[in-house]
Structures are given as C-alpha cells and as structure tokens.
Write a structure and sequence with these properties.
This protein is an alpha/beta fold. The protein has 13 helices and 15 strands.
C-alpha cells in the first residue's frame, strides 16, 4: 500500500510540474530551461524531465538555441500550435460566425454567413459543414478539433440539455436538444450564453482588459448582460444572471400591452431594436424600418426620431441605474445594434442622465470596440483556456 501511495504521489507531482512548465512556456512564448527553472521555482533536472515529457507528448517543441554565459547555448522551447484546435461559434439571429484557432490562439480560418436556424436540424447541418470547411483550410479534420465552444442566446439547462429563453432558436427548448451539437466538431463541446461570452471577449481583447469589475450590456435584437466580478464571469445560481430583458423598466409604455412583451420582458420590449422601431412608428416616424433608421433620422434633426431616441435613453438609463445600484461596476460596455450607436445619441445622454439617478459617481460608459466579433472572441478565449487543460489531461492519461 505504501508503494502505491508513493507512486501515486510521484505521478501527481509530475503532472503538476508539467502543467507549471507548460503554462509558463505559453505565457512567455519562447523560453529556455534555465528561464523555466527560475520562473517556476523548480529544479533544472525537474524542468528537464517535464520538457522531455511535454515534447514527447507533442505539446512543446524546440525552436533553436540562445547563447548563454561562458559560451554555453540553451535550447529554446515553445508551445506547439498544432497540439490543439478550438472551434468557436456565435449563433446569432441573422448570422452565424465561426472561427478556428490553434492552441496559441492564432485564428487560422474564419467565416460568417446568414443563419439557417429556423429549424434545429438545418442549423446543425450548417455548423457541421462550416466546421468541415474551416478544418480543411487548416489541414485537419473535424475529429482533430480539441474543443468546440458555442455561443447561443438563452440559458443552457445542463440537467435537461435544453436551451431556455432563446425564442430565436425554435425547437432548442426541447429536452436533449443541445446534444445535437456533439457531432459538429470533435467530441467535446461547451455551450455558453452569447452575451456572457461577449463579456469574456471584452475582458480578454477589449475595453475590459485590466478592469476587475465591469458589465457588458448588449441591446440589439434582444437584450442581455455579461457580468465580470473580480475578473471572473458571474453566471448566477441557474446561469441566468444578466437576463436584463426582464428588468421592470419601461412601465406604462404602450408597447408593453402587446402580446410579445410578456415573453420578451419589459426592458427588452421597449429598448430592443424592434422596440425602438415600434416606438418611432407609434410617434409618427412611419418610414423607419430599423433602429438604425431611427437613430440616423435623429442625427439628421428629425424631431420625431429625436423624441423616440430620448425615450430609449430614458429606458436604458433607468436599467443601468438599477444595475449600478446592485453591482457597482467600474465600467459599462455597450454592444449590440442599439447599444453600439455613436456616443452623441446614446452613451453621452445616458451618462448624463445617470448622474441624476445614482447617488455615487456612475460608472464609465463606453461603446464596445469589438463590434460584432465580441461573442466569437469570447468563445475563442474560453475555448483556448479549456483546450490547454484538455491536451494536458489527455497527454497525462496515455502515459
């Protein structure tokens, strides 16, 4: 029994050492054995064993040498990009956006095309085809993909395998519907709320870098919020944190008498793209087909459009006032077709209105710099972090 325990302890230490060496190599990009020993605190012989094992497993590779003291040369190592692949997907109402990245995060293939999500099987077939096309561009197969990350509207119920609160994806609210995603790319997949992923994208590549407490608020076809608390994504008890479409904002608006309002929620009914158009038309701007039309008309000086935008500013300001009172974020990043409007029409008026609605200084409010790529970039960020753990786990399991 003592021998078994010792062997088990040795195995655990070996895996921990390899993870430490792999993580530091990834962080530094190109590194020598002496540098790894210094950075990790491990002995040079221990680092050497870890490097040998990781290289043998195909996770690291030598990329030359660097001259050291007394004329000695040290071998340099880096993460082998082809050791893992991440397939990222943003399933939107109108478009699907997909990308394929290697293990160091280089996007090797990318495609956007109109969504065929009116029927679940059509969407699955479309995503399967796209996964195959991107894999072929990279010189691999769909089975070679380490992890797929799907960003979708709504909430993934892991107990039932259904998507809740995703009316734009008909049929996905049925039990086991999410399991259809398993065969699209590889065998391992993750389903995340799209706005949560957008928040991760902002934290990794956008305005949220270095900001510990911020929220990403998407106002477009629908509304939603991703919450970063102390640098980590907050999902809530049921994964429903951030479903701000159901905030009681907009009470008294005639739009709330429409049948769809109960299903979409009060705030989403009055602040989403459809809500903006419906409001403008009710006020008399009958030629507005999109929310962009309304904002463009307001910028051009149309008084009816200006009144409609003023109502939207009021709804958004009250929603952000409630969010600020509860979460106290340092930054609010606005995204989505409505939320991304230029600052003179939305951001600046909302910031000014907030000063009257909150007691303390309100958070900074800025428009996302990632645009329509926020969800996809968040999916890549989540996928890359998990894929690196997966390749390490798989390498340890076969030894």
């Amino acid at each position: 029994m003592e021998t078994t325990g010792t062997a088990s302890t040795t195995s655990v230490l070996r895996v921990m050492n390899e993870r430490a060496v792999f993580a530091e190599t990834f962080r530094l990009g190109t590194v020598s054995r002496p540098e790894l020993a210094q950075r990790t605190g491990l002995s040079k012989p221990t680092v050497a064993v870890a490097l040998t094992n990781l290289e043998r497993a195909g996770l690291l590779r030598q990329v030359g040498t660097r001259a050291g003291a007394a004329g000695r040369s040290a071998a340099l190592y880096e993460v082998r990009p082809e050791a893992g692949w991440v397939f990222a997907v943003d399933v939107g109402r109108s478009y699907v956006r997909v990308g394929l990245a290697d293990l160091v995060g280089t996007v090797v293939a990318r495609k956007d095309e109109p969504s065929r999500g009116t029927r679940a099987r059509d969407l699955v077939a479309q995503l399967t085809r796209l996964a195959g096309e991107l894999a072929a561009e990279a010189g691999i197969t769909r089975d070679d993909i380490t992890l797929a990350v799907f960003g979708t509207p709504g909430i993934h119920d892991k107990a039932t395998g259904a998507l809740h609160l995703a009316p734009n994806l008909p049929g996905w609210d049925r039990r086991g519907s999410v399991e259809r995603l398993a065969g699209i790319a590889g065998s391992t997949y993750v389903v995340e709320n799209d706005v949560d992923l957008a928040a991760v994208g902002e934290a990794t590549y956008g305005l949220g870098r270095g900001v510990r407490h911020f929220v990403y608020v998407s106002i477009g076809t629908g509304t939603g919020m991703g919450i970063m608390i102390d640098g980590k994504l907050y999902r809530g008890f049921r994964g429903a944190a951030g479903e701000i479409g159901y905030l009681p904002v907009g009470e008294g608006d005639p739009l709330l008498d429409e049948p769809a309002a109960r299903r979409r929620g009060m705030f989403e009914s009055v602040a989403s793209a459809d809500g903006v158009v419906a409001l403008a038309r009710r006020l008399g701007l009958h030629d507005a087909a999109t929310a962009k039309d309304v904002f463009d008309a307001a910028r051009a000086g149309d008084e009816t459009a200006r009144l409609a935008v003023s109502r939207v500013v009021d709804h958004v300001s009250h929603a952000l006032a409630g969010i600020t009172a509860v979460l106290d974020p340092e930054l609010v990043v606005l995204g989505g077709g409505v939320g991304s409007q230029p600052g003179d029409l939305l951001t600046a008026p909302v910031a000014e209105r907030l000063r009257d609605l909150v007691v303390l200084r309100p958070p900074r409010i800025e428009v996302s710099t990632l645009g329509t790529d926020a969800v996809l970039l968040g999916a890549l960020a989540v996928g890359l972090a998990e894929a690196r753990d997966l390749v390490l786990d798989r390498a340890a399991a076969i030894r």
